[in-house]
Amino acid sequence: xxxxxSGDAVKNAFVQFKDVQKSYDGEVxxxxxxxxxxxxxxxxxxxxPSGSGKSTCLMMLAGxxxxxxxxxxxxxxxxxxxxxxxxxxxxxxQNYALFPHMTIFENLAFPLEVRKMSSDQIKEKVSKALxxxxxxxxxxxxxxxxxxxxxxxxxxxxxxxFEPELILMxxxxxxxxxxxxxxxQYEIKHIHESLGVTVVYVTHDQSEALTMSDRVAVxxxxxxxxxxxxxxxxxxxxxxxxAQFIGENNxxxxxxxxxxxxxxxxxxxxxxxxVTALNVxxxxxxxxxxxxxxxxxxxxxxxxxxxxxxxxGKIVESIYLGxxxxxxxxxxGEQEFVMKVPNATEHSSLVExxxxxxxxxxxxxxxxxxxxxx
Amino acid sequence: MSTxxxxxxxxxxxLKVSLARATxxxxxxALMLVVPLFVFILITFFIPIGDMLLRxxxxxxxxxxxxxxxxxxxxxxxxxxxxxxxTVFTAMAEDFKVAAENKTIGKVGLRLNYExxxxxxxxxxxxxxxxxxxxxxxxxxxxxxxxWNDLEYWRIFKRESAKFTKxxxxxxxxxxxxxxxxxxxxxxxxxxYLNLFLRTLKLSLLITALCIILAYPVSYLLxxxxxxxxxxxLILVLLxxxxxxxxxxxxxxxxxxxxxxxNDLFVWLGIVxxxxxxxxxxxxxxxxxxxxxxxxxxxxxxxxxxxxTIPPSYMRAARSLGATPLTAFVRVYxxxxxxxxxxxxxxxxxxxxxxxxxxxxxxxxEGTLISNLIAxxxxxxxxxxxxxxxxxxxxxxxLFLYLMYDKIVGIDNMKLG
Lengths: 374, 417
Hints:
The complex is a heterodimer of chains A (374) and B (417). Chain A has 374 residues and is of the alpha+beta class. Chain A has 2 domains: 3-241, P-loop containing nucleotide triphosphate hydrolases (Rossmann fold); 248-368, CATH 2.40.50.100. Chain A contains 9 helices and 20 strands. Chain A has helices at 54-62, 84-87, 104-113, 119-132, 148-160, 178-195, 206-212, 230-235, 240-245, and strands at residues 13-23, 29-39, 43-47, 69-74, 77-78, 89-92, 166-170, 198-203, 215-220, 223-228, 250-259, 264-269, 274-279, 288-293, 299-300, 309-320, 324-331, 335-342, 355-360, 366-368. In chain A, the strands form 4 sheets. Chain A has a 6-stranded mixed sheet with strand order 6-7-8-3-9-10, sandwiched between helices. A 5-stranded mixed barrel of chain A has the order 11-12-13-20-14. Chain A has a 5-stranded antiparallel sheet with strand order 15-19-16-17-18, with no helix packed on it. The two termini of chain B are 48 Å apart. Chain B has 3 domains: 1-54, no CATH class; 61-165, no CATH class; 193-413, MetI-like (MetI-like fold), CATH 1.10.3720. Chain B has helices at residues 15-54, 61-65, 67-73, 86-102, 105-113, 119-129, 137-144, 151-159, 167-172, 193-224, 227-238, 245-256, 261-269, 284-308, 312-320, 325-336, 338-353, 357-362, 370-379, 384-408, and strands spanning 175-177, 183-185. With 417 residues, chain B is mainly α. The mean pLDDT of chain B is 88. Chains A and B meet through helix 2 and strand 6 of A and helix 15 and helix 16 of B.
């Protein structure tokens, strides 16, 4: 498999984390030896559940937290001892952090004023930044008079107005409702593309990460579990945590029975059935494994030569979701499969209790490490 | 249906009537909850204070006790330069006989004595001999006391026999009547109250400023510490509230007096010589120190409650935008604490301007405030009218400053917690 597309080594890295560790209490490491290179102009997302260390990494990069060990480089220079206001990094906060006692204009002018620009320059730059987020004409409003989406646009504009090369975003869309969030995702992405700035984005929402990012670093337990493009992350998760955290996943627990060629292996399930899967982590015969199959890769009523693994099952739940049906099929005894079936006329018979066959190709079933629930 | 038409419910009653009916029960319930406190405050606070304030201009005493004289005096022209005629003296003789019988003559004397000393003895003397008076009364009265020959006494007598008087307010503002009966400022050496009002304002402002300076860092620390530590600190801030005000004030005496702890320490350290012990109590310094200490929690609490609501991301945002810590603090943090400063200042200032116990105990002569003089007139000189006038002026002053605050800062911006 081509796992190098994740680009673990980046040429001319703009931001570099080198063996960075962080502990708040001297007993627990929140970040355990982080190595991460971010290229110039890249949109990199740090994704993970709360407490995984992703926000701490962002705060260290912004300068609000000191690494306990290791160093952070920006443009090749160590910034560990540089104060936040000298780093020239734009930041967007989850609660927007717009200054309530200032108008929108004053909010945007603030970073320019502390840089001692002339008032003509300030006016020009502020109106340019407001136009970019389509908020022209809001100069004299106060942050309290804005809706969540508007406030977020202003926060983005304020982080961009002094033209930093690096923008950090700490769950900026967390407070918005779903529809607005999706719209803002595209807007932020377009701004990133048109300006070419480097963005480091923190979120716990995996769909947000997949939509926006060039690369995603999946954090758990203080380490990066996988660093890859959204496609690779979804199609080829390296371990059970990533498989479970990104997108929907069918999980089969078993024991590796024998190794086959082409990196395939046979896995024995709890009910003695044997299936073939891709041995991603080169696990040894006899080792516990958790296999991952994406719902859309499970084939309903497969033809004889279409798939390598087949089982018969019964639909226990059928949910109508408009463009597709979501089926819950029980097969291999107690095992439940989630699968997605396009909404077509011939599928109207897929109701609860129907006997169906399920199957999948061995390459789509990835044998990973045993899954430890979060 | 057009919008101009009044909205009606299904059965045809106007919507507003229907709504009022529906919410009547909850309105009545809300009212019932407030009634006990309202009645309590009305009886124990508003009515007595209102009664007290009325005394600052009410003046029915003279007319009540000497009705005939007051009536007869109406016809006397005080600018004529002559004494009132016999009718007035006749009326006065009758009134004095009744008043001497009722033993009320002293009261009138005391009341008029506020305007000019001498009235009290004049009335008591005349009252004692009222029974034996024989016509012609004018000569009889003049024989009792020469003061009855003095036009000024008569002028004041007539002026203060009116139902309402402004003399208390005039006295409270250090204004009096000159020889000719015109309103004029009192000579400088006789002015008391204006200076005291000024001193009260000045000290209150100073104490408020000191409280802001001392409370700001503490509140900031309180709002940034983790919960368990800030709770401990908050208890330390509130601890003085659990100690009697009297104990706190007297312990300042123990600390600050010439043979006190602080002076002993200074002498021991060699900062001052044994002869040069500092006078820190029974003067303005004592008042300022003790009152600042006592009023400090009233500044810390509103400040703390406002600072707690300022998210740390404001400062971080300012820093990330390129502001130095100082710029971020001055331009972003401080403006957001204005509501707390305003609330704390109003609380401390209003409490300070009417403070009584502490200045009375540690203020000496130059550290006393207007409230101490009000108390003096209430309990010692028994000139309640003047006390009421001073109180009314103080109340008006506070209300005026409050309105100014509302105009400048806006009362809606105030956060008390």
